[in-house]
Specification:
The chain is an alpha+beta fold. The protein has 18 helices and 22 strands. The chain has helices at residues 45-61, 97-103, 106-114, 116-121, 127-137, 140-147, 155-164, 171-174, 189-195, 225-232, 289-297, 304-312, 348-374, 391-401, 413-425, 431-435, 450-469, 474-477, and strands at 2-7, 11-17, 23-30, 34-35, 41-43, 66-71, 76-80, 89-90, 150-154, 168-170, 203-205, 208-214, 217-224, 241-245, 249-255, 266-273, 276-285, 319-321, 338-340, 381-384, 405-407, 442-444. It is globular, with a radius of gyration of 21 Å.
């Protein structure tokens, strides 16, 4: 039997599967955020560790002998040699990295213009920059980490240390820190030097690995949550494409080799298994489910079933620019949410349909950018995550992208990806089977005419370019 712990941005999930791969137990605990000021999004590191350890114990009590972890990425914290957290988790949607970048010497900015790769690393949302913020906030950490009395790295490493006492990190998270080269996993010495931070990193290992034990249960898999979903969707084969729509929306396309992608896109290590690395290109939107949750809290609807019913009857009158946490593509980190097309006739139904269109058009914009560097993707576009349960959204996504969109019966794609890797670790499935795509529960066919779709996407791209140039305006950056 197997247990999967999926650590997402808004909550932690446990799924336990019997030897026939049937889910016999499922639980989700909402975690929430710590309120620490405008633009700062932290999570309680002590509470998070307690939930994960509790879920591991629960899985063992139900008969699981192995567990695997999927963890949200690009989030950092510090902890002592005893495992005591020395900070909260600074999450990937936190905005404080701008403070670090703005204070860097002028000559660092000049280096960024000369090197595109360096420019992507010296970015407000890079874990390396968030680590620098923590070092600045607590100068004593510099000495503690240098002496080995404390550790600072990504969330996966902290959770693995909490469970096993070993300072490890799986490749999928480590390669996104800006401190590790995703091609050969070597340290990027120039970034350590530019930021003046201790060169202290964990042992970086494959996604399937003997990570250690927690109270007698083996930990055999650790992988970033988006990459786990990509594994489930069959992206170990080049040219396939997957989207996961949770707190944010992520689009990943698998490639035959590492591609240093265009501005705003992320070169990705999808997985490393038995020393074999699988690559991809990613674009993302920080706020999709985040906006859905905000609208629910604002009273637009009481349940997700009601949201779907309202959105399905809405008209395409207004469009959300889904930029609650800024945009990476085009670069507009200060831009905040905008709704266009408002008039007295716009209804609640229209606004919810406009949200679906706003997210879908942005993802189509990302896909178009990815295709320019990685080639045209194979259909279908696989979709997972909570918002993918919306038929309205997936139909709009098919229309916006011009691609068939596939949804599996189980939309918990990250959990299923980890499960497949656990099965592989036990020799129950082969690499060939691991590459296979899942069975689609439903396919959404694009209904929009191609010339209409292209015209709409061109107009949307023009709108993005215009508002990204205005992002410094106080009205658009939410600074009033």
């Amino acid at each position: 039997m197997y247990g999967v712990i999926d650590v997402g941005t808004t909550g932690v999930k446990l799924a336990v599967f019997d030897n026939n791969i049937r889910c016999i137990y499922y639980e989700k605990v909402e975690l929430g955020y710590e309120s620490v000021g405008q633009g700062r999004v932290e999570q309680n590191s002590i509470k998070l560790a307690e939930i994960v350890k509790g879920f591991a114990k629960k899985a063992k009590s139900l008969g699981a002998r192995k567990i695997g972890l999927s963890t949200y990425r690009a989030s950092v914290l510090a902890w002592s040699r005893t495992g005591k957290p020395l900070s909260n988790v600074i999450t990937w949607i936190d905005g404080r990295g701008r403070e670090v970048v703005e204070k860097l010497p002028t000559w660092v900015g000049m280096l960024k213009t000369l090197s595109k790769s360096l420019g992507k690393v010296i970015s407000p949302d890079t874990p390396a920059i968030l680590m620098k913020w923590l070092y600045n906030a607590d100068p004593s950490l510099q000495e503690k980490v240098s002496k080995g009395d404390a550790y600072m790295w990504t969330l996966d490493s902290y959770l693995l240390f909490t469970l096993t006492g070993r300072f490890l990190s799986d490749v999928t998270s480590a390669a996104l820190t800006g401190l590790v080269n995703p091609k050969d996993l070597s340290t990027i010495d120039i970034v350590y030097s530019l930021l003046s931070i201790p060169k202290a990193s964990p042992e970086i290992v494959d996604c399937v690995y003997d990570f250690g034990e927690f109270e007698g249960i083996e930990i055999s898999v650790s992988i970033a949550d988006q990459q786990a979903a990509s594994v489930y969707h069959g992206l170990l084969e080049a040219g396939r494409v997957s989207g996961v729509h949770g707190t944010g929306s992520f689009i990943e396309q698998s490639t035959r080799s590492l591609i240093t992608s265009g501005k705003g896109l992320v070169p990705l290590l999808i997985a490393s298994i038995d020393g074999r690395r699988f690559y991809g290109v990613e674009g993302f939107l920080r706020s999709s489910g985040l906006i859905v949750e905000w609208l629910k809290n604002m009273g637009f609807f009481r349940s997700y079933e009601e949201m779907e019913e309202l959105a399905s009857s809405g008209r395409m009158k207004s469009i959300f620019i889904p930029s609650f946490r800024g945009l990476r593509l085009p670069e507009a980190s200060n831009l905040r949410g905008i709704i266009t097309g408002l008039d007295p006739g716009v209804s609640k139904e229209d606004l919810l349909k406009g949200l679906a269109w706003g997210i879908a058009l942005y993802l189509a914009f990302i896909l178009d950018s990815i295709s320019r560097v990685a080639g045209k993707p194979q259909e279908p576009l696989w979709s997972g995550g909570g918002y993918s349960r919306s038929d309205t959204f997936l139909q709009v996504l098919a229309d916006a992208t011009g691609m068939r969109v596939a949804r599996t019966a189980d939309t918990e794609a990250s959990i299923r990806g980890v499960l497949n890797l656990l099965l592989y670790s036990d020799g129950r499935i082969s690499m060939e089977e691991l590459r296979r795509q899942p069975t689609a529960e439903r396919i959404f066919e694009p209904n929009m005419k191609e010339n209409e779709r292209k015209a709409l996407l061109e107009s949307y791209a023009s709108l993005l370019r215009v508002i990204s140039r205005w992002e410094g305006n106080v009205l658009l950056s939410g600074k009033l």
